[in-house]
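Fold these two proteins, one after the other.
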Amino acid sequence: MAEKKRIHFIINPISGTQKKDQIIADIGNYLDTTRFDYEIKYTQYAGHAALIAREAADNGIDIVVAIGGDGTVNEVARSLVHRQTALAIIPCGSGNGLARHLEIPIDPVGAIQVLNECVIHELDYGKINNIPFFCTCGIGFDAFVSSKFAEAGKRGFLTYIENTLREGLSYKPDTYTITIDDNKQMVYKAFLIACANASQYGNNAYIAPNASMSDGLMDVTIMEPISVLEAPQIAIQLFNRTIDHNSKIKTFRCKKVSIERAAPGVIHFDGDPVMAGKNVDVILVEKGLNVVINSHTTPQPPLLRMFSNFYSDLNQFRDEIIEKQKRLIRSHQEHVRKSLKRLK
């Protein structure tokens, strides 16, 4: 009989909008324990997932499963690069960009079934100013919105949309000098520059529709300045995977890109913002991460995919709206309680 593989599940209890108790129950009910022994570990602070994953790799654990959003996935994955230990994902964040690119089901039971299949591929990853990223990184408007999202104190797709709509009206494009593979140089006035290892930001917003994690290249998307009238078309194309057809979008593939801007500012890696200087370097590292993938994916036409993804996200959006309603009700009840107390 084959020796069982060892799995560590790392849970970020505060990521995303989903409750984690049901996921723990699903692991107990659906994980194939004839093939796997497992432990469940909880993060206690920012950066803890990276430490737990590093210790797991040092101890020869076969698979580390990130249970959380893109931030948790990034923490776990950056501790597993160039190690034998494989990354797996049970997505429960607000964007789930890497999981969606890999077509890992958002439903935890479906994600556990992918884990049971245990198909592992060696995939690429990227580094921006030497910080690892696995889905996308960027400079410009997307990094700016990521910083506002981080400051908001609330998570979820609705919060991200609120920040995007509010900040988009006042954001001013910058001028960038771009050097590709230490050779070709270009100057662009741009709304944003996105460097993609995977195809999307998250929430099925495809900034690089044709990106592959196994081709040894990153897909760079430059969005030139757009008007308020052009924004809706860009938004539609972002979600139906045709943004590269827009005349305001310039794309190319490379292994390295250097970006120079007039002043320091924010950049992002997998949606996490960080301040950086005037010069930003992004490189693609080939086959540096072992990942449990979904081997049963089926291509869909763009329009069908858009509606299918929208349908699959309805429950998540519904939960976010219900949670907002609950907070409003609790706030109202507290206001009434305080008012009655003052009257007494």
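Now the second one:
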Amino acid sequence: MKKRVSLKDIAQEAGVSTALVSYVLTNKEEKARVGREMANKIRKIARKLNYQPNYLARSLKSGRTDTIGLIVADISNPFFGQIARIVEDEAKRHNITVIFGSSDENAEKSADLINVLLNRQVDGLIVVPSEGSEQQILQLSERHFPFVLMDRPFPSIAASSISINNFGASYNAVEHLLRTGRKRIGMIAYQTGLHHIAERRRGFEVALANAGLKTEKRLKLARYSHLREDIRKAIDQLRGGKHPADALFFATNSLAIEGLRYISELGIRVPEQLAIVSFDESEAFDLFHAPVTFIRQPIREMGKAAVQLLLSQIADSERPPEDIRIDAELVVRRSSAAS
């Protein structure tokens, strides 16, 4: 059997110490003040000798695996796909490998994924929690395992989280519709107890109330498992009667995309008959005949902050939880033009 190439082999050929080789191959040459020319020489020798790091030995020595887990709610949703990409890129900058999983908005699958990742001995977790997963998150907290909640905080659990100001973003979107002359604004949201959706609903209701408008029967809920059916029913109800809605606010991009399909089928003119605003962005919004106004979440900032916060927790187990809120941006386009 061919002998495994070691750091010592590389050090001998380069004429330096094994410690210096270790610094370079773990991307810590600046800390050790290794010159760029020497660092490039060491990496070239490592490639020539086909050096393969012994991650098992390294993890046994350090007590870390240099891996983290990321659990998103639905990887088929472009929003979570972007989060995964940004988290992976930011982790790579710190020489950390990311193991992905998608709960598909299912608490049981979320529990299974957490157990699998813990058994893989990841150093920490970034979790976009599904509904009904509070107990799983509480158990992580009680065992002092490093984790960060992303996009969806649980206010009742003392845990680090990265999210946006959902209430403020929703409030601003409704205020924008009011400024364009809309008075009969409806909202379609998921039927869920998750905090971020509840805050979006609250922002909608408070904005209308502050404008002296009634919210009764203006908020409609759709089930995740019956999306198409419930959205069509909601739009029929909001557009029916003597005073049909003149604007719709969708709580997520997946709700908006399904709603836009039905609005097109009905032949409703946007924005002349109905203004549209959605939370989150989607490439589909650019393809609609009236480009859709949307609330842009700062995904890159959120993803990078989540990784950095998790690494800080891994480095310091006594670090207190941080709840970081970031403002979102309303991107105004033709779908919400003045009536």
